[in-house]
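Run log, item B.
One chain of 113 residues. Sequence copied directly from the ordering sheet:
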Amino acid sequence: MIAAVLMTSLEQTAPAAKPQGNLLTALIPFVLVFVIFYVLIILPTRKKQKKHMDMVGALKPGDKIITTGGIYGTIMSVQQDRIELKIATNVKVDITKSAVGAILPAAGTGKTD
């Protein structure tokens, strides 16, 4: 019985057809998906990171900033990896440079960096 089923299934299988086309044709959809992914996700992220790094590099004492946590303050000093931020009278905190969300516009100007 099992032998009959195996013989029937072997008879029904046709010889494998040779693939038509070439490898390049098969890879085109994958390459297109990668290019679209790169253009829509990676490039804007890199641009945003570069803009943030430039902003952080330009920080100086006296700048008013807002942190990513929503704390407003004035920069008292800038070190290599952190910033001393005055958030109230006699209240100073150290934050990492990456925690800077934005530089607030100076008094009298109407634009932000």
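Observations after the first pass:
- The two ends are 81 Å apart (CA to CA).
- Helices lie at 2-12, 23-57.
Flagged for discussion on Thursday.
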